Amino acid sequence: MPTTRPPSQAAFAVADRIFEGGTVLTLDEALPVAEAVALQGDRILAVGSRDDVMKHRGPTTEVIPLLGRTMLPGFVDGHSHIAAMVDTWGWPDLSPPPAGDVESFEDLFTRLRQHLAQTAPPPGATVVAVGYDDSLLVEKRHPLADELDALSTTHGLVLIHVSGHLATANHFALEQAGYVPGAEDPPGGVIWRDAHGVPTGVVAEQAVFGLLAHLPPRTPEEQLGILEQVQLHYASQGITTAQEGQTSPAALALLEEAARQKRLLIDIVAYPKWTTLTQSLSTRVAPRAHATHRHDCGRERHEKTTGPTHVLREFKERKHVGEYQDRLKVGGVKLTADGSPQGKTAYLSRPYFKPPENEPPDYRGHPVVSQEELDAWFDKAYAEDLQLLVHCNGDAASDMMIAAVRAAQAKHGPKALRPVMIHAQTVREDQLDAMKALGILPSYFNVHTFYWGDWHLHETLGPERAPRISPLASTLRRGMTLSLHSDAPVVPLEPMRLLDAAVNRTTRSGAVLGPDQRISPRDALAGLTWGNALLYFEESTKGRIAPGLRADLVVLSDNPLTVAPHALVDLKVLLTVKDGEDLFSSPEWDADADASMFSQSLFLDETGWLV
Questions:
Q1: The pLDDT of residue 189
Q2: Percent of the chain scoring above 70 in pLDDT
Q3: How far is CA 212 from CA 174, 215, 409, 487, 492, in A?
Q4: Distance between CA 486 and CA 454 in Å, rounded?
Q5: Which pTM value belongs to this model?
Q6: Going from the N-terminus, what domains does the chain have, and what CATH number goes with each?
């Protein structure tokens, strides 16, 4: 017979949805662990014990059993390039395991042959593939133009290195770009040549973008459709807020049009690229038929700009910087100070352990911007109260950013602008002290320990410096906020691998790289949630599960705080909730939900109360 009905709900706000029956890791110090969460609209209504939260249940409240799974705040992306994900969506993937299966030149050539046979591009078209990694190929080198000519001499073949700082191409693509014997290096770029001055096929930094001028076009609708697919991919990884980490004018136009059409499914924070800032001041327009906006790392075409003095104020006012409009926010401006450590183009204070073959023994890499240019940007940013993100992989580049912030604060006084050092791969202990004093936030590409830890140990940095890459524990010891990111599409969007890398720091070979820099799972989860929300000045609305915050949630297959450390990478995202609505659900979640609903339906009376 029916049970006694609950008392009047008049004293309690009625929830739209209640999740119960599992573990809730709130990442909120006031209540670290809870049993249930109630949602009302796009906000969290209540968090706590099951009995307390169920007081918010009304006749129409949907009660969702977690079935012993673990709920956390939705993951906030600390740094990636969602527009670059749109650009590369559907391109051949040449990644090594575990992201892909290309381990040798033969694997790589087979993949390209298959793509050419399946797609039959017209003669003259450019075919771009991404993700190859010379450090993990059997041959331990880049494929060269002569070798790629064996695949095609009537198409441009361009292979973009996993770092994004390098590419290799066949002679057809080199000639299309004007990279022929006698040609000068483009500004900010390098063309690798043999002893006779003939381009080998490999180019670096800004020269990469000269190879991409002949890509086949995509219609605006195709771009918008792919953007929706990419956003669902982010959601499938539990990510509810994403970054467009160095936004071209074309990328910003695409995002603005998607926002106007209400086609943004997750929140996106864009940071226009410093050298194209004047172009980004255009009004909202439909996206171009096609324009490559591959992500940062200092490798886009080099455009001259009038500098920060004349554009920052207009940019801030016209783009409503810091304000969401239909899930799109312009957060500030992104600059690139150097290149990539795995590509040996990062700017170091000491020489590389093993310099590239074409460089002298004292080679340390090079900056992308001068100290004077970086100082000028920070001077004007502090005058206009604008946040800057700066890509700094090498510690010499980090010194440049620290000096620029120090000079700006000496002139304008300390301000809570939260400048972010993106990647911060090789920051030293003394630099962390300076960053804390200046309010510079490091955002770590910490999965380097897995993907390139062995390479850094034996090739780029050596046994003294490599164990300190991504110094997470040193950061926490200073009481600094931790931020973790994937830099996708450089590596896949995998928050669980970021978690694993932070806790275990194991390389591909299984070695532990810098055991003293390992951190706890809880600290790592904070770096994926509220730590990243802090970068966007959104820690009061995101990154924790607490009443009044945005109802951005993720359900994992198990509890990251209780599973074995090396099982962290195997945790699965089962459900992602954005603003109170399900955005992604896995087949496993759907099957269990159907079974649970069938079971509950046997015990409901006509008003919906359990009997």
A1: 87
A2: 90
A3: 10, 6, 40, 21, 22
A4: 18
A5: 0.87
A6: 17-73+552-601 (2.30.40.10), 89-212 (3.10.310.70), 337-541 (3.20.20.140)
Torsion on CA atoms 219, 223, 229, 234, rounded to nearest 10: 170
Q: Taking the mean position of all CA atoms in its chain, how far away is CA 68?
A: 30
- pLDDT more than 90, % of the chain: 80
Q: How far apart are CA 127 and CA 120, in angstroms?
A: 10
CA dist 110 → 128, 165, 504 (Å): 15, 24, 35
Q: CB atoms < 10 A from the CB of 8, how many?
A: 7
Orientation of helix 395-412 relative to helix 429-438, angle to 10°: 30
How many whole angstroms separate alpha carbon 486 and alpha carbon 81? 10
The sign of the dihedral angle between the CA atoms of 259, 262, 263, 269 is: positive
User: What sign for the dihedral angle of Cα 346, 351, 353, 359?
Assistant: positive
Q: Please work out, in degrees rounded to the nearest 5, the angle formed at the alpha carbon of residue 296 by the alpha carbons of 469 and 162.
A: 65
Residues 489/494/495/501 CA torsion (nearest 10 deg) = -100
Taking Cα atoms as reference points, which of 111, 123, 42, 43 lies closest to residue 546?
A: 43
Nearest to 576 by CA among 78, 73, 81, 229: 73
pLDDT of residue 10: 44
Q: Which of helix, strand or coil describes residue 326?
A: coil
Residue 567's contacts (CB-CB under 8 Å, 6 or more residues apart) are: 558
Task: Give 349-361 pLDDT, tens digit per residue.
Answer: 999 999 988 899 9
Sheet containing 166-169: give its strands across.
126-132, 156-161, 166-169, 199-205, 189-193
Q: Could you give the CA distance from residue 92 to residue 111 in angstroms, rounded to a whole number?
A: 8
